[in-house]
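Reading a protein record of the kind used here takes only a little practice. Think of the row as the fold of the chain written in a discrete alphabet. A record is reproduced here so that you can trace the correspondence yourselves:
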Amino acid sequence: LGTSALTFVTVLKDYLTVSVNETAKTDIELSVFPNPSNSVINFNTASTEVAQVIVYDLQGKVVTTESFENGNIKLDVSHFTNAVYVYTVIGKNNQLLKSGRFTVAK
């Protein structure tokens, strides 16, 4: 298991200060399958830190938010349009644990 960090840089107009905010990302083992799918996407992990998964379309709009139950989510994508979707797994302390993408193809 590894860790990585996201770096956010904020530049404010008419200010002389530039700030950098680093947010640590804890990596977890996560299975997302089948990919691509036309009906269901499964999210499985042994991590006890997971709380929810947030799914976005490629324009950044939240498509759905689902909660993990015993490390599992069975996400019904049968009503999703054919596209690539981005997901983020959020932990119990509201931290980013994992991100990735899946494809819906009918």
In short: DSSP finds no helices and nine strands in the chain. The longest strand covers residues 3-11.
